[in-house]
Design brief:
alpha+beta, Nuclear Transport Factor 2, Chain: A
């Protein structure tokens, strides 16, 4: 009788352990400088002075379309979309006003690339 109980117990447990073993989902990657959240929408008036100065300098002849505040590596960064001639460029500016990334120009109706994407010819 004990033998039958063990067989039944194994029959119930085996499929569950096989399902776990077949799971090929890769483990989540450690933080590699990625954005922590989607961010908070801001206006020019809400920017720190150093960031505002950089945006004004970079946006000469362009329209500021949107400004998002994100967190990267525990520090505030600001993503600024600039538009000119139906082309959009996204700037990433740190809290000191330094431009840390100038995204390539893209058509205004094209989706944004993720920061981990690479440009292909």
């Amino acid at each position: 009788m004990k033998c039958i109980k063990w067989i039944v117990a194994l029959a119930l447990v085996a499929p569950a352990s096989l399902a776990v073993a077949d799971d090929k989902t890769p483990p989540p990657k450690a933080d590699q400088g990625q954005m922590k959240d989607k961010g908070q929408k801001l206006t020019m008036d809400q920017l720190p002075d150093a960031v505002k100065t950089s945006v004004e300098k970079e946006s000469k002849g362009k329209q500021v379309d949107s400004i998002m505040k994100d967190t990267k590596d525990g520090k505030d960064v600001f993503k600024v979309d600039l538009v000119a001639n139906n082309k959009v460029q996204t700037l990433t500016i740190d809290q000191t006003g330094k431009v840390i990334d100038r995204g390539s120009m893209r058509d205004q109706n094209m989706p944004k690339k993720q920061s981990s994407d690479t440009d292909m010819p």
